[in-house]
Amino acid sequence: MQVKSQRNRRSVQHSNQLFLRQMNATLNRKLKSIRHHLVIQQSAMQQHLMKMIQDGSEQGMDNQDRTDRVDPPPRILYKQLKVLLITPSVDREGSSNSILIEQSLRHLVQHIHEIKTIQPLADHMAAQEWDLILMLDGEDILPNQSLEALRTSSAQKAIWLSDQSGVKQMESILPSFHFIFTQNSAHIPFYRHVDHITCHEIPFPPNPAVFCPQVVGRAYESDVYIIGDAHPGSCLFALASHTLLSDKKVRVEGQGWERFGSFVPVQPYEDREKLYNGTKIVVQDNSSARQVMEVAACGTFQLISASSSRPANLDDFQQYTSLEELVQKLSYYWDNVDQRRLAASQALSYMKYNQSYLHKSLQLLDMIFQ
Fold it and tell me: Is 297 within 8 Å of 206 (Cβ atoms)?
């Protein structure tokens, strides 16, 4: 009986152990599954928290950027502008500028209306709201009534000077304008003394009907045409005595050339476009941008000093910075006719496609409205 009792106890213990192993196995599977889900949930929560932190940081940066950033002013659409153009009442040498500028502006703005300086400005101010009032030439003095109407106008006001008279004569009308455009950068320091005035150099482009390649008579021919003053110590003064010019016909325009009797002085009444076309090489020192452009528009090769005003693209214009460089380049281009013609053609092409009246009118609008 005792043996049977021991067998029964071993059987019960075995059954209990088997049950415990099965239960532990079940619990382990469940715990493993729970741990797996907990790991997944924890990872998901971490990613969610990181995204929230990142989004919050980016939003804060965006808010700071919006606070710090100053939006640029909206770009003006030129085709919505209305322009009142004031032109000289008396035809002058540069009167064609008025016609060419008006024609160019008509391509750029919505409406343009031209009046003469002698016409009452107030009448035209009352009839239309203008975005820009542009006066050309500046040689005519506006009547007091027109000046008063100009001062009270809310339009942008600009004057594009011909600079034919001395700058002192402009003092009475300049304070009525916001912008001054001059032919010569040397005048800018004086104009900037006027309060609330912005001044830029924008030379009138050469009239394409006047300054262009053309055949001229022998009376206009020369080998070298020098533009500039012959001050002792200057490049031009030293060049005048150089043997390079000894066997050449040389025309000169400027001060101080009286001592060089073999050179031909250019008179004020002579047609510059014919003289430019009739010479082989032009040498300029401290010249205005307009003179440089007029020579280039004639298709004539030129050497210009680094101190001369010139169009923006210097790659199309041959420069010199010293007497040695001037003599070297003058000798080279005199002997190499093909290179001289190629350089002149490049400058002529640049003038045609980058320095036209349309380009200059657009440049003026950009400086006023942008």
Answer: yes
Residue 82 scores a pLDDT above 60: yes
Output the CA–CA distances (angstroms, integers) from residue 91 to 83, 162, 271, in the order listed: 22, 13, 18
Please report, in angstroms and rounded to a whole number, the separation of the first and last CA atoms in the chain: 117
Q: Mean pLDDT for the chain?
A: 84
CA distances from 41 to 33, 38, 47, 49, 232 (A): 12, 5, 10, 12, 92
- Confidence check: pLDDT of 259 > 80: yes
Of 290, 320, 291, 287, residue with least CA distance to 303: 320
Tell me what percent of the residues of the chain surpass a pLDDT of 70.
76
Q: How confident is the model at residue 230 (pLDDT cuts 50, 70, 90)?
A: very high
Tokens of 49: 């928290």
